[in-house]
Design brief:
Number of helices: 3
Order of helices and strands: HHH
Helix content: 55-70%
Number of domains: 1
Distance between the termini: 75 Å
Strand content: under 5%
Number of strands: 0
Radius of gyration: 30 Å
């Protein structure tokens, strides 16, 4: 038996779908266009979702930048260590 979460099936409701979820007295008010802010509320929800997604992406990018900076510093340390411990090979003169 599988259950579906609301986040897995999150999609915008159309106006008629939204109105059908309302109690009868509220449907009557919606029929006479008592609530013209529905579209504004839907856009606000969408902007909030977009802001959350952008914030998550930004956090992932920050973590990736930190990881890359750490790797770069380790590579620099390895290169400096390799340069200081190795001697240059003698020139062979056969070019």
């Amino acid at each position: 038996m599988t259950t579906s979460s609301s986040s897995a099936t999150s999609r915008s409701l159309t106006r008629s779908e939204y109105v059908s979820t309302l109690p009868p007295w509220r449907r009557l008010l919606a029929m006479v266009n008592w609530r013209p802010v529905y579209d504004i509320e839907q856009r606000t929800k969408q902007h909030e979702l977009n802001a959350l997604a952008s914030e998550k992406r930004l956090n992932l990018l920050k973590k990736e930048n930190e990881r890359l900076a750490a790797l770069e510093s380790r590579m620099d340390a390895l290169l400096l260590n390799a340069d200081s411990s190795s001697q240059t090979p003698p020139a062979t003169g056969s070019n």
